[in-house]
Amino acid sequence: MPYGALFQGIKEEEYRRMMACFHAKEKTYASGEVICTYGEDTQRIGLLLSGEASLLRTGYDGKQAILEYLHSGDVFGEALTSLPSRIDLIQVVSTKPCKVQYIDYTHLIKRCPNACPFHTVLVSNALQLILAKAVSLSERLEVLSQRTIREKLSCCFALMSAEKGGHTFRLPFSFASLADYLSVDRSAMMRELKKMKEEGILRIDKRNITYCPGDNPS
């Protein structure tokens, strides 16, 4: 069946015809392998068929920051974002064994030579994904712009709980990865989490978090 939001509204047979028309290619990656580097291949869009990966930014000083976590059904590629790659090194790296399907961006934006009626649906989906990624990047910058570790944690947890529509949500990655995501020292972050738990702002059960800044979680 078609994978993810990019192919929403497209039937399996239509999906297969489109992939043949686009000359799509699949490739597998081991855990920890670089899938792509922004700035080197600007014309390909990657669709994560299985596995997990991270979009990493490495600064000129060697420090890394996780910009986005990618799961099955997610798409990536420089053509879908406006991230600067001239100064910082931006790469997609697998965190688990991955299978990726590649589509040329030119096939996406050009009129299909076979006049496939579902091509319009694909283009509409792609535009919505680009908008969603812009919103996600804006939220990411909002978190990073906070001054203190507590402010970063609070902003991050508020966004995650709002996305789930309640106080409780599951952290999509480990606490070590959360520190990388927030660009803070892990030990200092864990101390701050402990303080927030003692103050009744947080309740943590493994990766399940209940965040209630206004009152004690029940």
In short:
This protein is an alpha+beta fold and 218 residues long. The chain is 36% helix and 25% strand.
Task: Give structural notes.
- The protein has a four-stranded antiparallel beta sheet with strand order 1-8-3-6.
- The protein has six helices and eleven strands.
- The longest helix has 26 residues, at 119-144.
- The chain is elongated, with a radius of gyration of 19 Å.
- Helices cover 36% and strands 25% of the residues.
- The model has no long low-confidence stretch (mean pLDDT 82).
- With 218 residues, the chain is α+β, with helices and mostly antiparallel strands.
Descriptive terms for the model:
11 strands, alpha+beta, elongated, 218 residues
Write the layout of secondary structure elements.
Blueprint: H1 12-21, E1 25-29, E2 34-37, E3 44-50, E4 53-58, E5 64-70, E6 75-76, E7 89-94, E8 98-104, H2 105-109, H3 119-144, H4 149-164, E9 168-170, H5 175-182, H6 186-198, E10 202-205, E11 208-211
Antiparallel strand pairs: 1-8, 2-7, 3-6, 3-8, 4-5, 4-7, 9-11, 10-11
Helix pairs in contact: 3-4
The coarse overall form would be elongated
Question: What is the makeup of the main sheet?
Answer: 4 strands, antiparallel
Please report which band the strand proportion falls in: under 5%, 5-15%, 15-25%, 25-35%, 35-45% or over 45%.
25-35%
Tally of alpha and pi helices: 6
Number of strands: 11
